[in-house]
Design goal:
With 459 residues, this protein is an alpha/beta fold. It has a single domain, classed as Alpha-Beta Complex (Amidase signature (AS) enzymes). The protein has helices spanning 3-11, 17-35, 45-48, 93-100, 143-150, 167-173, 207-217, 254-268, 285-300, 321-332, 335-348, 354-374, 400-404, 411-416, 444-458, and strands at residues 38-41, 62-66, 104-109, 156-161, 176-179, 199-204, 240-244, 273-277, 380-384, 420-428, 431-439. α5 (143-150) packs parallel to α6. The protein is globular, with a radius of gyration of 21 Å. The structure holds glutamine (GLN).
Length: 459
């Protein structure tokens, strides 16, 4: 059930709030052993839920929260051994807003360590599984939250998206995932991966629910200085949809190409006008993302030194301070995190900074410019969300390069700070295919309006 459907049932008194929450908890009990979607489950929510008021916008919304978002007094691991015993000392701003809005939390979602990955196989607590096919990955890094929504463990979830981590797992699990405009949702209390890209957003059963949650969590926050209240309320009558030709050339599988082309022709037959556009620097997006992301990761991971955060606090049983760092980070971090810290440190080093980091930033500006030019001609852009169908567990884990290619269609929105949503647009071989829609910065209203129409067209 969606949040809206749940609210209606509650209003008609067909079910009590308590019964509803407890039915999600039983579903979790039944399924989590199979999917490993959740890293913690809040059974005691049932004792707290009676305080929730009926007239609140998120009354009836039951959330799973990605385990890199702080909920006061609960464990928050970010999928890492190094934070296995870390308990959050405060609520993230988004959590405060959801609590005030009447939402409740049933658990924390499994994820790739520090949100680095595309399959949830980089979790220190074992991979999550795709509920639609247990042999396959649910995507990542928000694989646990996406799987939980798809599997009926909650009616909505919060994820975070640095290069596609809300959209790619949502596409793999057949649900809706929304990454807001950079700066519209506070990152206070969200464990940082790459700060110039990170955004929190909803994973939901439909576009309407994603919009509802966004309206509650967005807005200026003094604790995150890049946030603003800006939203454009102008939704044009005649919408032009741009399809970038570069997204259909390399790396896209036949299954995805066919399904997306089918979906586009249905949109073309509707009230929307579809036109081909060009985003000429697309082929440089992933390499630029990799360099900037790894650079920011190397800085953000520095706090896990065993003194401020880490396996051992205070004075560790190490011979020297250097030894303490090595021990903590050596044992606490997984392979993928170490790879990115090494790559980022290298890209930022004095001799290579201009050749890599500065160059990547220039490409980032060109990508943003590509979109600016395109949005002078069209209102939204329609693309595939992923280049392939959900892959098998183990298929890509030994090949980081092919894993990173999973993000080829999603990183551009993070590079340019744009809002982007994925929704199911068809099926192939019994597996879901997602379509991505992007809009101008702060034009979430246009994005939701178009996505709701597409949702109807593709049903
Ligand atoms: N899969 C991408 C990566 O590994 C994106 C991660 C994310 O959005 N958190 O970097």
């Amino acid at each position: 059930m969606t949040i809206k459907e749940t609210q209606e049932k509650l209003k008609r008194k067909e079910i009590s709030h308590r019964e509803m929450v407890s039915s999600f908890l039983s579903r979790i009990k039944e399924r989590n052993e199979k999917t490993n979607s959740l890293l913690s489950v809040f059974e005691d929510v049932i004792d707290k839920e009676s305080s929730v008021k009926e007239d609140l916008p998120l009354y009836g919304a039951v959330f799973v929260v990605k385990d890199n978002i702080l909920i006061k007094d609960e464990r928050c691991t970010s999928g890492s051994k190094i934070l296995e015993h870390y308990v959050a000392p405060f609520d993230a701003t988004v959590i405060e807003k959801i609590k005030e809005g009447g939402g409740v939390f049933v658990g924390k979602g499994n994820m790739d360590e520090f949100a680095m990955g595309s399959s949830t196989e980089n979790s220190a607590f074992g991979p999550a599984r795709n509920p639609l096919d247990l042999e396959r990955v649910p995507g990542g890094s928000s694989g646990g939250p996406a799987a939980a929504v798809s599997d009926g463990m909650c009616n909505v979830a919060l994820g975070s998206d640095t290069g596609g981590s809300i959209r790619q797992p949502s596409a793999f699990c057949g649900v809706v995932g929304f990454k807001p405009t950079y700066g519209t949702v506070s990152r206070s209390g969200v464990i940082a991966m790459a700060s110039s890209f990170d955004q929190v957003g909803p994973i939901a059963k439909n576009v309407e629910d994603a919009e509802l949650v966004f309206k509650v969590i967005h807005g200026k926050d003094v604790l995150d200085s890049v946030t603003s209240d800006l939203v454009s309320k102008v939704v044009k009558k005649k919408i032009r949809v741009g399809v970038p030709k570069e997204y259909f050339v390399e790396g896209i599988s036949k299954d995805i190409k066919e399904t997306i082309e089918g979906a586009i022709s249905k949109v073309d037959a509707s009230e929307f006008e579809v036109v081909e556009i060009s985003l000429p620097h697309t082929e440089y997006a992933l390499p630029a993302y990799e360099i900037i992301m790894a650079s920011e990761v190397s800085a953000n991971m520095a706090r896990y030194d065993g003194i401020r955060y880490g396996l051992e606090f205070g004075r560790p049983a190490a011979k020297s301070i250097q030894d303490a760092y090595l021990k903590n980070r050596g044992e606490g971090f997984g392979k993928e995190v170490k790879r990115r810290v090494i790559l980022g440190t290298y890209a930022l080093s004095a001799g290579y900074y201009d050749a890599y980091y500065v160059k990547a930033q220039k490409i980032r500006a060109l990508i943003a410019e590509d979109f600016k030019k395109a949005f002078a001609k069209v209102d939204v852009i329609l693309t595939p969300t992923t280049p392939t169908l959900p892959f098998k567990i183990g298929e890509k884990i030994e090949d980081p390069l092919s894993m990173h290619l999973s993000d080829i269609f999603t990183v551009t929105a993070n590079l340019a700070g744009l809002p982007a949503i994925t929704l199911p647009c068809g099926e192939k071989k019994g597996l879901p295919v997602g379509a991505q829609i992007l809009a101008k910065r702060f034009h979430e209203d246009t994005l939701f309006a178009v996505a709701k129409k597409c949702e109807k067209i593709w049903k």
